[in-house]
């Protein structure tokens, strides 16, 4: 008797083989969703580690035109929003194995981001705007101070 890895129910006799792990398609879909969720969470943690560094490298401004919506750190639903109106763009998309490295990330305003997504701005053109985003001790101290200030404003 073999048990389903998801729900623990007995796998029906007509489904038993060495490679069957689930009692039915519902549990198989749930297992697939769990795997996808793990991959998504891992990627989200990775991008969140470097997101602030990318924003700081571009001084929170669009790499192409220098636009930003505001000078202030924005708090939306209790979460700090560092982008200030701009978004990180993967020059080579992750679906094409693009990585979260300096040579593949650029900060863009909504207009240039849309143009990049549509291919109006080529990948080669975008690579001309990339910057290193190593976080120096001074920038790290500034980031910590900004976070502390924002948290203090939320509390008080």
Summarize the structure.
The chain is mainly alpha-helical and 156 residues long. 42% of the residues lie in helices and 9% in strands.
Write down the Rg. 22 Å
Rough outline:
elongated
Oligomerization category of the chains in this entry: single chain
Element-level helix/strand string: HEEEEHHH
- E-strand count: 4
What's the mean pLDDT score? 85
Instruction: Give the strand order, joined by hyphens, for the main sheet.
Output: 1-2
* Biggest pleated sheet: 2 strands, antiparallel
Distance between the termini: 60 Å
The helix/strand class is: mainly alpha
Describe the structure.
This protein has 156 residues and is mainly alpha-helical. It has a domain at 53-155. The protein has four helices and four strands; from the N terminus they run αββββααα. The strands form two sheets. A two-stranded antiparallel sheet has the order 1-2. Strands 3-4 form a two-stranded antiparallel sheet. Strand 1 (74-76) and strand 2 (79-81) form a beta hairpin. The longest helix is centred in the N-terminal third of the chain and has 33 residues, at 25-57. The protein is elongated, with a radius of gyration of 22 Å. The N and C termini lie far apart (60 Å). The model has no long low-confidence stretch (mean pLDDT 85).
SSE layout:
Layout: H1 25-57, E1 74-76, E2 79-81, E3 87-90, E4 105-108, H2 110-118, H3 123-127, H4 137-155
Notable characteristics:
156 residues, two-stranded antiparallel ribbon, 4 helices
């Amino acid at each position: 008797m073999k048990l389903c890895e998801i729900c623990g129910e007995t796998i029906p006799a007509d489904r038993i083989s060495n490679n069957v792990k689930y009692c039915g398609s519902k549990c198989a879909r749930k297992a697939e969703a769990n795997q996808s969720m793990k991959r998504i969470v891992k990627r989200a943690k990775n991008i969140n580690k470097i997101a602030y560094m990318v924003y700081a490298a571009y001084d929170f401004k669009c790499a192409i035109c220098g636009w930003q919506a505001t000078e202030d750190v924005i708090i939306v639903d209790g979460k700090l929003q560092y982008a200030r109106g701009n978004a990180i763009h993967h020059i080579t998309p992750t679906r094409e194995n693009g990585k979260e490295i300096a040579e593949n990330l650029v900060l863009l305003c909504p207009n240039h981001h849309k143009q990049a997504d549509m291919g109006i701005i080529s990948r080669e053109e975008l690579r001309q705007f990339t910057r290193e985003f190593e976080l120096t001790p001074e920038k790290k101290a500034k980031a910590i101070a900004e976070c502390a200030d924002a948290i203090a404003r939320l509390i008080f």
